[in-house]
Specification:
heterodimer; A: about 475 residues; alpha+beta; Ubiquitin-like (UB roll); Uridine Diphospho-n-acetylenolpyruvylglucosamine Reductase, domain 3; Enolase-like, domain 1; 15 helices; B: about 800 residues; Aldehyde Oxidoreductase, domain 4; 8-stranded mixed β-sheet; 2 iron, 2 sulfur cluster binding (chain B); molybdenum (chain B); Xanthine dehydrogenase molybdopterin binding subunit (chain B); metal-binding (chain B); Ald_Oxase/Xan_DH_a/b (chain B)
């Protein structure tokens, strides 16, 4: 049985198939049709809802998510708010009021999703005692996963800046529900411990593992696969941890990007900058680093960075735990070193040493919420004389798997970054990679763009910090 | 006597000075505004899904749908053979079967339909079809199609005869005329001639609400069709034809659309017809919603164009002649392509006097979805060559492109278009002067030139481009509208008109007009769903004409009622008829005042009819397609934009940093709504020219079938510095509704400034003396490749590097 609170009202449902989406739960079973389907793939944000959970201090806070690719069973025990739940009788929520006053809706179809994204932003800022208007970066990040085809966004940005000036409504504090019980519901398994997880995996070797589900669920919504058995990693206690070690961190497979972000901001600014362009906020609230690795996409954003960092993976299963370098994990297009009955348990991020630097850039057609055409990640240790040591370079979008650029590494290793070194590295690219033309980019562009990124790396590593901007961010 | 509703005596006029927002704004933000898929279906409603052709060009040899029939939940399977009437849903010309019969003509064409208990079951069942096809080689290259004579309609040409005559413009233009010596003479006489070529990509509408229709049988054997369509009368007509029943048996209804942008002008009809057919056969209500990937494959898009231009000009950059060829890729059938390519031709001049001109339009057939209306309707594609040419001329002569543009603008003397229409209000010169100053164009140009000289990687680009857009349907008969106005005994007013609401705020504007004519508070006026049984034979809500036509029809209805009420009041209270006015929720005659509600109740009791129809037909317009001459447009809307872009020349990535817009809407009906149209149109145009890339494989399969691969602008793409102003003090010279101007489409083309600014930034790599080819959409990939081409040309040490497609043919 699935129990949740929707807009303050408790619902219990039986017989929901494992792959039922939150959107079809809302629209089909609960008759709450304010939440829209625009794409069924988590790309447009028309289905954005707010999911309320309690933090360690018992405060209820809400995060936005795409209902269209969210497994309904993951809402067990949650407080779900949708656009229908914000107004108190005739009194609109400040977000709604601001959207009206600033003419933020035209056709209205994306509006409920935009209202929910702004609600989450407003709620979080009020919770943290932030009184002023959000800045442009914050607004763009909050709305990066909400497409509007009518307004051109200016009016919506104005609404986002104005909403804090309106009085805060009294939001009802809903009664808490019992947490996910570990029960099996129609093929949706909620293990709560590593032990239970391994047991279920052993019993159901065909079942699919799901954490954020932001990729897996597309098999259901777009390719119409039934996905009858799903094992949810998001409730496994041991996988929810970030475990700090002397020289790095173990990131549990249940840790979402959103929870990982502060660590990256502190220790890997280049990784953090990239994270802000990975999916949308709705996606980052649910998706995990481990999921991005385990689904073995050639264009996953994080594997090239993890390869450049020299990350290690911990796999677990009935046969016991084992570790392997991420380089050895991808065995071919969408295939991995995971054996049947094994799962990816945690990812180890080595701490950067004193002279080490990590650089990483992604190129895509659109800046926000797009899949990379190419990715370049590079970790070096800068010697006293400016020579590059311990060079590790990896690319995404350049081969059937994320891949180290061994020839480029060799061309850079021990060298000072000058014209000649750069030329050699760019020439080596063609030895490392023979990319293909596809929907995101041509072969020629992939090669040229990565060469451009190598040149950018050179500017970054050797610039004298004069006033001339070398990237768009520096203007 | 039955009791009438009681009314308060005080009038309730809302605070003045505040323009009303969208009539559904509260519904939008609370989720209460329902779209078709949100409605609780009638009892027993079923869902429909369609099987799409996997091939672009093939004969259907054998269809085995037996497995489909036995899938869970399946109730009915429908093929072309099951259609009782015509298997045809073409908007203007035949060529669009509802379901494929013997052949398929594009990948994504609807071949059969399945009705099941749920949409998921219907979609799953579709995958069990076994259809044998005999594959044929698809035609996918529009230029090759033209060379091979594959067109959906004949070519068409506009030509200005020499010497330019005043009014008698004989048969200087016809479909068959290939050449006239005049343009060629002008080009020969010009001190400079250059030519260029450009591929302009199409555009997916990406309305957030996908195509949808719902049909149910009525108890008298009629059908009610709820449709997300810009053209309910056409849905009504095509449903009737497919079913073989008269029009009065069908009611098509539209409350609101979740976006249209032209994509629901003709393309929505197939869904209505399909749902109606299934409802007719099965006796139950049917909902037919296309999932996003099906929608993107099955329905047409903005026409991609292949354009060529040859322009002659003097040393100052002034045009002497232009020969422009526009090849529209129409897809597999005519659909609306006649009008789309016509409009591209009408806009080949944009805001410039071309001199001696020849404009030729071709309608190429390819085995792709039939391309259709999209905001601008060919106009944007038609403007691209001359805007490209302006930049090319400037770089050839070493001038600022703005100066070249200004020298060629229409003005009081040079005001006849290449199709013979006189421009009576050429506002563009003054508008550009104002914008040039307010945007600080010259100082920023100097700063950018200085910045670029010192910046090895990041380059900035700046461009100011104008827009002139002709307002009216070029198909004359569509320029008509009707409205029905009803006053109820409590004084509330209900309006119905032929226009549809897709987010553009049309209903709000119509309510404003009715309230103003009757002198009553805005909130007393309400609009109901557009229904073909209230106002018949309506035109599509398209061509930016929604408010021009429908608000005028509603106004005429309001005037009829107002006059009737005044006649009644004058008689009833023996007041001087000529001194009566309706204002502030009441009738006044000097000191005397009758509250609106009282007036209406008394009028009712006196048996004054309280409903009226209004009608409007745009005056003065005419166009002769045979001669290519006439006055196709009632008036023109003007605008201009300055865009500044920053380009990373190592990767091709860029940002649009600042945009200034000054746009002409005449006397604005609603400045907030108009500003929303301008900003939204601009960003949509920017998407068309930058990130929105449609890709097909070499067999004609669309590869970009969802938002994961097809990238419309996101919030972060909109310029953070976005300054939009309405041109003040220039009411429409024509007697439009309160001297306003249409605003739906024209702003889209302001985004050409972004493309032009990108070229400007790239050209800086060759000291602004090379004019880089930049096909659209100008993705980071195309921008980087243009950078590389310019750098390569420069490396080869040409003193004046010329990119291959912007040749200077002669420089005397």
């Amino acid at each position: 049985m699935l129990s949740l609170t929707l807009n303050g009202q408790r619902h219990c449902l039986n017989d929901l198939p494992a792959a039922t989406t939150a959107l079809s739960l809302l629209r089909g079973h609960l008759g709450a049709c304010g939440t829209k389907e625009g794409c069924a793939s988590g790309d447009c944000g028309a289905c954005t809802i707010a999911i309320g959970t309690r933090n360690d201090r018992g405060e209820l806070h809400y995060h936005s998510a795409n209902a269209c690719i969210l497994p309904a069973h993951q809402l067990h025990g949650c407080h779900v708010l949708t656009v229908e739940g914000l107004a108190r009788k005739e009194s609109l929520h400040p977000v709604q009021q601001a959207m009206i006053e600033h003419h933020g809706s035209q056709c209205g179809f994306c509006t409920s999703g935009i209202v929910m994204s702004l609600f989450c932003l407003d709620n979080e800022r009020r919770r943290l005692g932030m009184n002023g208007p959000p800045d442009d970066d914050t607004i763009d990040a909050a709305l990066g996963g909400n497409l509007c085809r009518c307004t051109g966004y200016r009016a919506i940005r104005d609404a986002a800046r104005a909403m804090h000036t309106l009085p805060r409504p009294t939001m009802d504090e809903p009664d808490d529900l019992p947490p996910a019980s570990g029960a099996i519901t129609n093929g949706f398994h909620h293990p709560e411990s590593r032990h239970a997880l391994i047991e279920i995996l052993t019993q159901h070797p065909r079942a699919r593992l799901i954490a954020g589900g932001t990729d897996l669920m597309l098999e259901h919504t777009l390719a119409l696969k039934p996905l009858p058995e799903l094992i949810d990693l998001s409730g496994v206690a041991e996988l929810a941890h970030i475990d700090e070690q002397a020289d790095g961190w173990w990131i549990g497979a249940g840790v979402t990007y959103h929870r990982l972000a502060p660590l990256l901001a502190d220790h890997y600014p280049a990784f953090h900058a990239l994270l802000e362009r990975l999916g949308s906020l709705q996606i980052r609230h649910r998706a995990t680093l481990a999921g991005n690795i385990a689904n073995a996409s050639p264009i996953g954003d994080t594997p090239p960075i993890l390869m450049a960092l020299g990350a290690r993976l911990r796999l677990d299963g009935a046969q016991g735990m084992r570790e392997l370098p991420i380089d050895d994990f991808f065995t071919g297009y969408r295939s991995t070193a995971l054996n049947e009955g094994e799962y990816l348990d945690a990812v180890y991020l080595p701490r950067l040493q004193d002279r080490e630097q990590l650089l990483a850039w992604k190129i895509s057609k659109r800046r926000d919420d797009d899949i990379s055409a190419v990715m370049l990640a590079l970790r070096i240790s800068m010697g006293e004389e400016g020579q590059l040591n311990d060079v590790r370079v990896a690319c995404g979008g350049m081969a059937a798997t994320p891949k180290r650029a061994r020839h480029v590494e060799a061309a850079l290793e021990g060298q000072v970054l000058n014209d000649e070194t750069l030329d050699n590295a760019c020439r080596a690219l063609a030895e490392d990679f023979s990319p293909i033309d596809d929907v995101r980019a041509s072969r020629d562009y992939r090669l040229a763009a990565v060469a451009g990124l190598l040149a950018r790396a050179r500017h970054r590593l050797t610039s004298r910090h004069d006033a001339i901007p070398m990237t768009l961010e520096e203007i | 006597m039955r009791k009438l509703i009681q009314h308060g005596s005080s009038s309730t006029v809302p605070a003045s000075g505040k323009v009303p927002g969208h009539d559904s704004a509260i519904g939008h933000v609370t989720g209460r505004a329902a779209y078709i898929d949100d409605l609780p279906g009638p009892a027993g409603m079923r869902h429909l899904a369609v099987g799409l052709s996997p091939h672009a060009s093939a004969r259907i040899l054998h269809m085995d749908l037996s497995e489909v029939r036995c899938q869970p939940g399946v109730i009915d399977v429908i093929t072309a053979a099951d259609i009782p009437g015509h298997n045809e849903v073409g908007a203007v010309y035949p060529g669009d079967p509802l379901l494929a019969e013997d052949e398929v003509r594009y990948a994504g064409q609807m071949v059969f339909a399945v009705v099941a208990d749920t949409l998921f079951n219907a979609r799953c069942a579709v995958t069990h079809a076994r259809i044998d096809y005999e594959l044929q080689t698809p035609a996918l290259d529009p230029v090759a199609s033209i060379e091979a004579g594959l067109t959906v309609l004949p070519q068409h040409m506009h030509e200005r005869p020499l010497p330019a005559p005043a009014l008698d413009r004989g048969a200087a233009m016809s479909e068959d005329t290939q050449t006239s010596g005049h343009v060629d003479q002008a080009l020969q006489a010009a001190p400079h001639v250059l030519e260029g070529e450009q591929c302009i990509g199409g555009q997916e509408h990406f309305y957030l609400e996908g195509q949808i229709a719902q049909a149910e049988r009525l108890d008298d054997d009629g059908l009610r069709v709820l449709t997300s369509s810009q053209h309910p009368s056409e849905v009504q007509k095509l449903v009737a034809e497919v079913l073989g029943i008269p029009l009065h048996g069908i009611v098509a209804e539209v409350r609101r659309m979740g976006g249209g942008f032209g994509g629901k002008e003709s393309q929505a009809a197939a869904l209505g017809a399909m749902a109606a057919l299934a409802a007719h056969r099965n006796g139950c209500a049917i909902r037919f919603r296309l999932p996003r990937a099906d929608d993107m494959q099955a329905t047409g898009k903005r026409h991609p164009f292949h354009n060529r231009y040859r322009v002659g000009f003097d040393d100052s950059g002034r045009l002497m002649g232009a020969d422009i060829t526009l090849i529209g890729n129409c897809g597999h059938s005519p659909d609306l392509s006649e009008g789309v390519v016509d409009r591209a031709m009408f806009h080949a001049d944009n805001a410039y006097y071309l001199g001696h001109a020849r404009v030729t339009g071709h309608r190429a057939m390819t085995h792709t979805a039939s391309n259709t209306a999209f905001r601008g309707f060919g106009g944007p594609q038609g403007m691209m060559p001359i805007e490209g040419a302006m930049d090319d001329i400037a770089r050839t002569l070493g001038l600022d492109p703005l100066d070249v543009r200004k020298r060629n603008l229409y003005d009081a003397e040079r005001c006849e278009t290449h199709y013979g229409q006189q421009i009576d209000q050429p506002l563009i010169g003054e508008l550009i002067e104002t914008l040039e100053a307010s945007s600080d164009y010259r100082a920023r140009r100097r700063e950018i030139t200085a910045f670029n000289a010192k910046s090895p990687v990041i380059r900035k680009g700046l461009a100011l481009t104008p827009v002139k857009f002709g307002i009216s349907f070029t198909a004359r008969h569509l320029n008509q509208a009707g409205a029905l106005l009803m006053i109820y005994t409590d004084g509330s007013v209900l309006v119905n008109h032929g226009g549809t609401e897709m987010g553009q705020g049309l209903h709000t504007k119509v309510c404003q007009v009715v309230a103003r004519e009757l002198g009553i508070a805005y909130h007393r006026v309400r609009i109901s769903a557009t229904r073909t049984d209230k106002v018949p034979n309506t035109s599509p809500t398209a061509a930016s004409s929604g408010a021009d036509l429908n608000a005028m029809a509603a106004r005429n209805a309001a005037i009829t009622l107002r006059e009737r009420l005044m006649d009644f009041a004058a008689q009833w209270q023996t007041l001087p008829r000529e001194r009566l006015t309706l204002e502030e929720d009441g009738l006044t005659a000097g000191e005397a005042r009758i509250e609106w509600s009282e007036l209406i109740q008394q009028a009712y009791l006196a048996r004054v009819p309280l409903s009226a129809i209004g009608f409007y037909a745009t005056p003065e317009i005419h166009y002769d397609r045979q001669t290519g001459r006439g006055r196709p447009f009632y008036y023109y809307a003007w605008g201009a934009a300055v865009s500044e872009v920053h380009v990373d020349t190592l990767t091709g990535e860029y940002r649009v940093a600042r945009v200034d817009i000054l746009h002409d809407v005449g006397e604005s009906l609603n400045p907030a709504i108009d500003r929303g149209q301008i900003e939204g149109g601009f960003i949509q145009g920017m998407g068309w020219l930058t990130t929105e890339e449609l890709k097909w494989d070499d067999q004609g399969h669309l590869l970009t079938t969802g938002p994961a691969t097809y990238k419309i602008p996101a919030c972060g793409d909109a310029p953070r510095d976005f300054r939009v102003a309405l041109l003040e003090g220039h009411p429409n010279s024509q007697a439009t509704i309160y001297r306003s101007k249409a605003v739906g489409e024209p702003p889209l083309m302001l985004a050409i400034s972004v493309w032009s600014a990108l070229r400007d930034a790239v050209a800086s790599l060759a000291d602004d003396r090379s004019s880089p080819r930049l096909d659209t959409p100008a993705t980071p990939e195309r921008v980087l490749m243009a950078c590389e081409a310019v750098r390569k040309a420069r490396l080869h040490n040409a003193p004046r590097p010329q990119e291959e497609t912007a040749h200077v043919l002669s420089a005397k």
